[in-house]
Amino acid sequence: MITDKFTFRPRYDEVDQMGYMYHANYVTYCHIARTEMMRKYGICDCYIEQQNLMMPVVEMNLKYRCPAHYDEEITIETTIIKEPVVKFAFQFVFINSQNEIICTADSTIVFVNKEDRKPLRVPDFVLNKLKI
User: Fold this and answer.
1) pLDDT value of residue 76
2) CB 80: neighbour CB atoms within 10 A?
3) Total structural domains within the chain
């Protein structure tokens, strides 16, 4: 199991009229947290694309518990629970500055060939970097 943390503050353009972070922005921050986690392990999206691979999200689920507010420090704990084979699953926990869980989410990606879009096993270079 691998866990990483990513911290951010919702910007003014990311909140709605109530001052809450707009719900769709949680998906964006899940993507950013996943990308930053993989970058820390030396797995960059640019390199993956150079290998003629893409990583589409095939499933995404979120459960909102309480809102994130403008300029409030939020930490996302991103976890890879098990070694990926074809599907690559991530869990996300959003925690506010009062240490409350405000949202939980999970997403699943797959690796596909850029040309035919057929799913592939997770590449060895990814597994070797993660060493789960």
Assistant:
1) 98
2) 20
3) 1
Summarised one tens digit per residue, pLDDT across range 9-68 is 999 999 999 999 999 999 999 999 999 999 999 999 999 999 999 999 999 999 999 999
Q: What is the DSSP string of 3-55?
A: EEEEEE---GGGB-TTSBBPTTHHHHHHHHHHHHHHHHTT--HHHHHHTTEE-
CATH number of 7's domain:
3.10.129.10
Q: What six digits make up the tokens of 28?
A: 């964006």
Spatial neighbors of 5 by CB under 8 A, at least 6 apart, are 75, 76, 77, 78
Which structural domain, as residue segments, surrounds residue 69? 2-130
* CA–CA distance, 74 with 6 (Å, rounded to integer): 8
pLDDT at 90: 97
